[in-house]
Amino acid sequence: MISHIHIKDFAIIKTVDVELHPGLNAITGETGAGKSIIIEAVSMALGSRADTAMVRSGSDKALIQIVVDETNLPPEDRTGIELLTREISKTGKTVCRIDGEIVTLSRFAEETKRIADIHGQYDHQSLLDPENHVKLVDLFRASYILPAKARVSECWTAYRTALRNFEKLSAEESSSKRELDFLRFEVSEINAAAPEPGEYEDLSESIRIMQNGEKVHDCLSHAFGALSEDNPSALESIGHARAMLLDISGLSDEYAGIEARISECYFELEELSVEISRMLDRLEYSEQSLNDAIARFDLLDRLVTKYGGKNGGIEDVLQYRDSAQERLANIENFDAVKAQLSDALQKAAWELTQESLILSRFRRKSAEELEKSVDEQLRALNFSDAKFCVNFAKWYGDDSANNEERSVDPADFSENGIDRMEFLLSANKGQPLLPVAKAASGGELSRLMLAMKSATGDIDGIPTMIFDEIDAGISGVTASIVGEKLLEMADKRQIICITHLPQIAACAEYHFVIQKSSDDETTYTTILELDGEEKVREIARLLGGKNVTETTLTNARELINLSQR
Known about the structure:
By secondary structure, the protein is α/β, with parallel strands linked by helices.
């Protein structure tokens, strides 16, 4: 529950601190005193969108803090939150904190939605929109409906993926068959050339060598002669030097080191001499070899230019060939692939259908129980002749005639299932069931919303319910009954109710009044908790208006006494 609210520099509120209690807390005050501003501030402290216009004039930022007390909650309903803080800057920047830790607005709203449920004076409009009705039915039996909805959502995603794959392949069918001959030609052209990785570069080097063959031969021959054949040759001279050093290497480490180094040079030159000799043996200078190499290089160059891309090579040509072969195989095997995707689509559609039908059956069961519960609550709210109904616009369940499931079209499904439903209401005996928007007046909508909240309140586990003028459109005996219903609901949760009706305020276990005052410079709002006689005077004001007389005071005391249990 909410145990404390601190508001600073919000709208016309300079500073307000209010200690709230378990049970029914009523807040009253003159029109324009700022009752709804309190709800607006609490709403922002629970994660609603911030409005910089709500920062008090002359201030840089507004601050709202809520202290949460979960001492009396069962462990499964606890959030672990103790302090919520929301700062709203005049510049538009907002800061959200949970127990002092700065968090994102999305996390803030997600974490705080289990703290309190706020029903504003216009929230009953949600009952007029059929899009919201399925959400309320799902909430009523969330324990088994939400897992079923999750399965439907998974099946819907799988179905949409299978459908996209099938439609994409079908769209490609005609163009793919036109592409078939072209791909065959490309693959054949590359395969006929049979290029090898690295061949393109090797040919380029070979051609350069053959085009400079005479020069290469002369240079290699002279190099080999200098190393091995001249008199004296390099190897012969270095071998002689090595022998001299070897003769004195045992005399000192320094001589031995020089001998070792010159020996390394000798053996290295010896290996080079052998390698140059092999190069000379491999040299070929026939004109035919050169022409054949150039022709092969030109063929590969055309393939690289055509299939290798900018700055490509033979590896890119081979990669293009492999990709084209894969594409060719897919096209040549098109019918088999299409059949495979069609089977996958039918399977996904069947699974979506089955899970959606299961979800729909759960919803019908939930709807029946919700109808019964809301009807009971409406009777308790002096709406004894009212009849509430959840009407399903479409149902694909069992056919009672032949006990066979009717055919379904997955195109009718969504990630939320197959159901389209609308709340119907008969407000008076003998009147037909009509959509709520057509059947209910403002006061009847208020009672219907209260009945709905009362029916679902025990299920959602939210410990605090806040009502902003739930009494719109009602008066007299009905107002007293609504007050009694709020007091009854307050046995299991904290109720905070902003009201202008004395019958509802008289039922409150704790009564607060909001007052608007002004001085020479500004206007500000305060909120006070009333004791016994103060509450009597406030109820008397609500009963009698501006002039509070002994008669209205007496009536107020009587109303309070009759309203308390």
